[in-house]
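Lecture notes, continued. The same structure-token format from the folding unit now serves as the input rather than the output. Read the line below as a description of shape only.
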């Protein structure tokens, strides 16, 4: 009986001792920002009441969209091909963050593994665990798609191509110290010129040579 009492006392004391917290999700994202990409789908309705699916692969370090494409009928085979195209001309990252959508079946997981990329899965129904992709999707909707009536897949592809050109080369990001994903040289010499983007919806400003 004395032994049981001592064991119970030890258990109670151990429960009260402070434990070192595990690495949080935010800490993990910050620690691996240079070695991580994320991928995600979002949907866009057309004037004909069809739903188009946009797939994109986003690099976290420079907030650069490495690959995007549009389809009306996403499949595992189509998604696997997009992953191949995303890393065709560059080194594959160490980690790939994604949600648990059923589209990412065995074929997609095998393709990711063949590139020697480790998958990092967000918790079910928790978009906050994929913050870089979700933040970009929000910007795409607010800064671009809410200002257009999309006609078809070709129109959406062309519109998003214009937006990403603006996003990469002219739109500043606070997380990049007000730089762009494709960093620009800062100059104080020359006349400032206005460069319209996405049909004049947004503008960039650069200096011309003196």
């Amino acid at each position: 009986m004395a032994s049981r009492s001592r064991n119970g006392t030890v258990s109670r004391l151990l429960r009260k001792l402070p434990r070192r917290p595990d690495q949080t999700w935010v800490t993990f994202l910050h620690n691996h920002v240079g070695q991580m990409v994320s991928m995600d789908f979002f949907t866009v309705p057309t004037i004909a009441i069809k739903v188009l699916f946009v797939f994109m692969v986003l690099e976290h370090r420079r907030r650069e969209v490495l690959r995007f494409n549009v389809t009306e009928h996403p499949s595992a085979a189509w998604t696997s091909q997009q992953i191949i195209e995303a890393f065709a001309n560059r080194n594959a990252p160490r980690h790939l963050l994604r949600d648990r959508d059923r589209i990412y079946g065995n074929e997609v997981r095998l393709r990711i593994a063949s590139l020697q990329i480790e998958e990092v899965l967000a918790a079910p129904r928790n978009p906050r665990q994929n913050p870089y992709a979700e933040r970009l999707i929000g910007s795409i909707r607010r800064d671009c798609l809410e200002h257009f009536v999309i006609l078809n897949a070709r129109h959406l592809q062309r519109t998003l191509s214009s937006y990403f050109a603006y996003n990469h080369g002219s739109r500043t990001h606070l997380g990049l110290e007000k730089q762009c994903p494709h960093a620009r040289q800062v100059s104080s010499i020359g006349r400032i010129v206005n460069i319209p983007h996405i049909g004049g919806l947004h503008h960039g400003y650069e200096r011309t040579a003196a």
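Point for the exam: The chain has one domain: 22-184.
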